[in-house]
Design brief:
This protein has 373 residues and is an alpha/beta fold. The chain folds into two domains: 211 residues, Rossmann fold (3-Layer(aba) Sandwich), CATH 3.40.50; 138 residues, Glycogen Phosphorylase B (Rossmann fold), CATH 3.40.50. Helix 8 crosses helix 13 and helix 14 packs antiparallel against helix 15.
């Protein structure tokens, strides 16, 4: 059974890349096709795999400006030359699902979301663009949306990463999908059993829709310690609005350090309307409760903590103060997310492949031999 994996791009290890990592463990011989990659930013599992990029990979400094190439990404993904295969498994939040699939191959798409900037979240990405550019942006997005909808014809079956995304796939694509939640590596993210330290924690990419700005605004007046882990294009903007000396930017940190930070935090702050969100699961696996915006995927992933109702600094301030009136047994938190384990994820993916592939027994057998779950 020849299997090929396809990913939008591979430059760091976030939620989408962790899904790909699990798929790569299920299919250990499958090459990975992607638009461009940064091998040094990947986990050992992905770093040691065969990765075949598009021509974009060879453009100098591509990782700094790839977001500006959005209009060209559909063309780029179509230039990927997938060899003869029985199964093509794409993981897509942008254009990966539009890859050319070899004749006779089954195409399964693990969809993290229909493109956010096309369906309901465009203002988060382009709202601050100069007014003079708006007509051009709207023209580009209209063409991209037409391509995106047309590319769905090349997908045989969709998997949604959450009930939230399943509804979006049905609404915007008029396609059914099965929900298989992303995995949390509960073998690595474990509770240490120690008492939390006196700080709150944010772990996020620094992009507009993550809304780290409202966390900074809230903690500027809360007189509590806040540690912020992450990096991205909004780094300078976020630092410029910090006024409290109790807010610290840590940048990107190694996994071992992140584990310690998650274990020792009073709570993880998750202000995002996310498609699903893997970081809340990692925090809970470490025994740490979550204070989350009560919309989107957090409603599925947050089992211990509390939600704030409005995506505003005041609503978050109120939630932090309310959180401090409650108590949580941190030893009981990890058990509540046991169904999100990597082993369970692999079981569900194998079952889905078996259901939709005539040669599913071959796929399943290969996975069982090559992975220990």
């Amino acid at each position: 059974m020849k299997v090929v994996l396809v990913q939008d791009w591979l430059i760091h290890m976030r939620g989408g890349e962790k899904v790909l990592e699990a798929l790569a463990e299920i299919y250990p011989d499958a090459p990975i096709y992607t638009l461009f990659y940064n091998r040094s930013g990947l986990s050992p599992v992905l770093k040691n795999r065969q990765i075949i990029p598009s021509f974009l990979h060879y453009l100098p400094g591509i990782r700094r400006y790839y977001r500006w190439l959005l209009p060209f990404l559909p063309f780029a993904v179509r230039t990927l030359k997938i060899p003869a295969a029985d199964l093509v498994f794409s993981t897509s939040h942008c254009v990966a699902k539009g890859v050319r699939v070899p004749k006779g191959a089954l195409h399964l798409c693990y969809c993290h979301t229909p493109m956010r900037y096309l369906y309901g979240f465009g203002e988060d990405y382009f709202g601050k663009m100069p007014f003079v550019l708006k007509p051009f942006i709207n023209l580009v997005l209209s063409a991209l949306k037409a391509w995106d909808l047309k590319s769905n014809a090349g997908v045989d079956h969709f998997i949604a990463n959450s009930e939230n995304v399943r509804k979006r796939i049905l609404k915007y694509y008029a396609r059914a999908s099965e929900v298989i939640h992303p995995p949390v590596n509960s073998d690595f993210y474990t509770a240490a059993g120690n008492q939390p330290k006196d700080y709150y924690l944010v772990v996020s990419a620094f992009v507009p829709y993550k809304r780290i700005d409202l966390v900074i605004e809230a903690f500027n007046t809360l007189d509590r310690s806040l540690l912020i882990v992450g990096s991205g294009p909004m780094d300078e903007a976020y630092r410029s609005i910090r006024t409290s000396t109790k807010i610290s930017f840590l940048g990107s940190v190694p996994d071992k350090e992140l584990h310690a930070l998650l274990t020792e935090a009073k709570a993880l702050i998750f202000p995002t309307e996310e498609d699903f969100g893997i970081v809340p699961l990692e925090a809970q696996a470490c025994g740490t409760p979550v204070i989350a915006y009560g919309k989107g995927g957090a409603l599925e992933s947050v089992k211990t903590g509390l939600f704030f109702e409005e995506q505003t600094a005041q609503s978050l301030r109120n939630a932090v103060e309310q959180f401090e009136t409650r108590s949580f047994d941190r030893n009981e938190i990890p058990a509540k997310i046991s169904d999100f384990s990597k082993a369970r994820f692999k079981e569900k993916i194998r079952a889905f492949a078996r259901q939709h592939t005539e040669k599913g027994v071959t796929v399943l057998g290969n996975a069982q031999i090559s992975t220990a779950s």
